[in-house]
Design brief:
The complex is a heterodimer of chains A (335) and B (263).
Chain A: E1 2-15, H1 19-28, E2 31-45, E3 50-54, H2 61-68, E4 76-81, H3 90-94, E5 97-101, H4 113-123, H5 128-142, H6 157-169, E6 175-179, H7 187-204, E7 207-211, H8 215-221, E8 224-229, E9 232-238, H9 239-246, E10 249-258, H10 264-271, E11 278-283, E12 286-292, H11 298-308, E13 310-318, H12 321-331
Parallel strand pairs in A: 3-7, 3-8, 5-6, 6-7
Antiparallel strand pairs in A: 1-2, 1-4, 8-9, 10-12, 10-13, 11-12
Helix pairs in contact in A: 5-6, 9-12
Chain B: H1 2-21, H2 23-50, H3 59-80, H4 83-90, H5 97-100, H6 106-112, H7 119-137, H8 143-168, H9 171-174, H10 178-186, H11 200-209, H12 217-225, H13 229-232, H14 234-257
Helix pairs in contact in B: 2-3, 2-7, 3-7, 3-8, 4-8, 4-10, 8-10, 8-14
Classes of the chains: A alpha/beta (335), B mainly alpha (263).
Chain lengths: 335, 263
């Protein structure tokens, strides 16, 4: 469905020296520098998959999305979606995709929402009957009814995002690109949007490429993730595989009953572990011990703790995805 | 084609509905335009109260040229006003992205998105001035001259459009090009008067470089005298076509150079 091969995008930037003097200098004698925002990224996505495309800010996620949607022309490499080259075959290609950029709307600011959909219906040549049915469905999953008569500029962020997603689905696209669709939204709206994405994906086999910083989006929606950092791909695989590979951190939480004679320092000292592998924190009178389960097995950690501290309310947690991704970002682990 | 027209009229009707939403803006625009024109016309009358003719043209002829020049300007203003936004912010802010993700020509999309009703003032004023001055200015309407008049108006409008389009497209490289458009566009002020009153330098500039002289003076010379239609009317067609080709080339290259913005 989507084949991305050795995709690369370079931008030419003017290098400015600091200060006004530097600015003036660069105005007359600009120095250029070529920066590769995306460098040699390849991946394939089969039909019907929801792919989480993640990475820290400035990693090149949006640049990849913009190349896949035909907005930017790649410097080299290729992407083929549904057998079409987005940059070369733009007009025919974009009929088959839906795009949402969470940071900006693609709706007409002054038009009532209903009119916006009316215009998009013509732009995508959706037949009347199909349009009626589609609007009913979108109304149902995204709950547009309350604000469909209001001008777009008066919508709240949550309403606007739902409206934008509905707009991108109006023409039943085969591929849906969502660039941070849940940014800045409250939990209720986030849930509504996630359910809508799942529903459309399940019933229509729509392939979805999703970028997000919200870990719950990934856990709930994505069967697979591709992670990029500094323009390179650093991970490509299932979430479960990532968890088992990097999810070695555990967290032991307990409330000490008599702890005066045993400090944090003693605790760490006794185990001869440190740094990333063992940290102890306190919260509401509870201890939170995060440790690397490869360095010290869970069983040993438990018995060590219980033999030194009298504790109650003991619980053990697996590292969540957020934790794993934080580690990955930090260490830039290879595939 | 049918689909294109349908989209166009759909957006047009939305624009007109929007006018109702921004009534104050519309009224202010119309009012400031009337002031502008009253000053312009008043200035011509002041000059003619001192002198009987200007560069061999009577008051009525000058008024005719002035009025005629407003018609193509108004037509362009009415239909392609959104090109200004391209140079001022659409490219810079990355809002151009949305036009590229739709299955229609982005240039058409941008133009169709805005219908500038303010331009009705220019058009109506231009038509009134042309009508009241035509007889005494010595314009003879024959079937041929009417056809050529219409041809001249259409191609003269496209001169305005091309200049806006070509300079707006520079934004794809320099990000903000609105001021460049402004500089070129302002020279149309010269087109309201006979080019013979200017120095050779200015005349050359407004004939061959920023050819606004073809949007007013030259077609009017043909209407006054019937002379040299090949240059006075044919010139409009040729200059306009060449300029449009250059503008479209810059635009199409710009599309490939577009770098978007933000995340």
């Amino acid at each position: 469905m989507i084949e991305v091969e050795h995709l690369k995008k370079e931008f030419r930037k003017v290098v400015k020296e600091p200060g006004l003097k530097g600015s003036v200098k660069s105005l007359f004698k600009p120095k250029y520098e070529t920066v590769a925002a995306v460098d040699d990224i390849s991946f394939h996505v089969p039909k019907g998959e929801i792919l989480g495309f993640i990475g820290p800010n400035g990693a090149g996620k949006s640049t990849v999305i913009k190349m896949l949607t035909g907005i930017l022309t790649p410097t080299s490499g290729s992407c083929t979606i549904n057998g079409k080259d987005p940059a070369a075959d733009r007009k025919r290609y974009v009929k088959e995709i839906g795009v949402v950029f969470g940071q900006r709307t693609q709706l007409w600011w002054d038009l009532p929402l209903r009119e916006t959909y009316g215009v998009l219906k013509e732009v995508y040549s959706v037949p009347d009957e199909k349009y009626q049915k589609r609007m009913e469905l979108l109304n149902e999953v995204l709950e547009l009814d309350d604000f469909i008569g209001s001008p777009v500029r008066t919508l709240s962020l949550g309403q606007r995002m739902r409206a934008d997603i509905a707009a991108s689905l109006l023409h039943s696209p085969k591929v849906l690109f969502l660039d941070e669709p849940t940014i800045g939204l409250d939990v209720v709206v986030k849930n509504n949007i996630r359910n809508a994405i799942m529903e459309i994906n399940r019933t229509e086999k729509t392939t979805v490429i999703l970028t997000t910083h919200d870990i719950s989006d990934i856990e709930l929606l994505c069967s697979r993730i591709v992670m990029v950092d500094k323009g390179h791909k650093v991970y490509d695989g299932s979430l479960d595989a990532l968890k088992s590979k990097y999810g070695i951190m555990r967290e032991l939480v307990f409330q000490p009953e008599i702890a005066e004679n045993f400090s944090e320092k003693d605790f760490i000292g006794g185990l001869k572990l440190g740094g990333e592998d063992l940290t102890v924190g306190h919260e509401n009178g509870k201890w939170r011990v995060r440790f690397n389960s490869e360095k010290i097995p869970v069983k040993d950690m438990l018995s060590y703790t219980l033999s030194h501290i009298e504790a109650k309310d003991i619980s053990m947690r697996e590292a969540d995805v957020e934790e794993i991704i934080r580690r990955l970002y930090k260490e830039g682990v290879g595939v | 084609m049918k689909r294109i027209l349908k989209i166009y009229f759909r957006l047009l009707s939305q624009n007109i509905k929007m006018l109702m939403e921004y009534r104050i803006d519309f009224l202010t625009g119309a009012f400031s335009f009337i002031i502008d024109q009253v000053v312009g016309i008043g200035f011509i009358f002041i000059i003619f109260s001192q002198i009987p003719e200007l560069a061999g043209y009577t008051l009525d002829q000058i008024v005719f040229i002035y009025g005629f020049s407003l018609i193509p300007k108004g037509l362009d203003h009415m239909f392609t006003d959104n090109l200004w936004s391209v140079g001022y912010f659409i490219v810079q802010k990355g809002d151009f992205d949305k036009y590229l993700t739709r299955p229609i020509n982005p240039l058409f999309h941008i133009i169709a998105e805005k219908f500038q009703i303010d331009a009705a003032g220019e058009l109506i004023m231009g038509i009134i001035l042309v009508c009241i001055s035509a007889g005494s200015a010595g314009v003879v309407f024959t079937p041929l001259s009417v056809v050529l008049l219409i041809v001249a108006i259409i191609f003269a409008s496209l001169i305005y459009t091309s200049i806006k389009l070509g300079t707006a497209a520079l934004a794809f490289w320099i990000k903000v090009s609105g001021q460049v458009t402004q500089v070129f566009y302002m020279t149309n002020e010269f087109a309201k008067y006979p080019t013979t009153i200017y120095s050779d330098f200015i005349r050359t500039v407004i004939t061959y470089i920023v050819p606004f002289a073809f949007t007013g003076y030259y077609p009017c010379v043909y209407l006054f005298t019937g002379e040299n239609p090949l240059f006075n009317i044919g010139g409009v067609v040729i200059v306009s076509s060449v300029l449009m080709m250059i503008a479209l080339t810059i635009w199409n290259r710009g599309l490939k150079a577009y770098e978007s913005a933000g995340s």
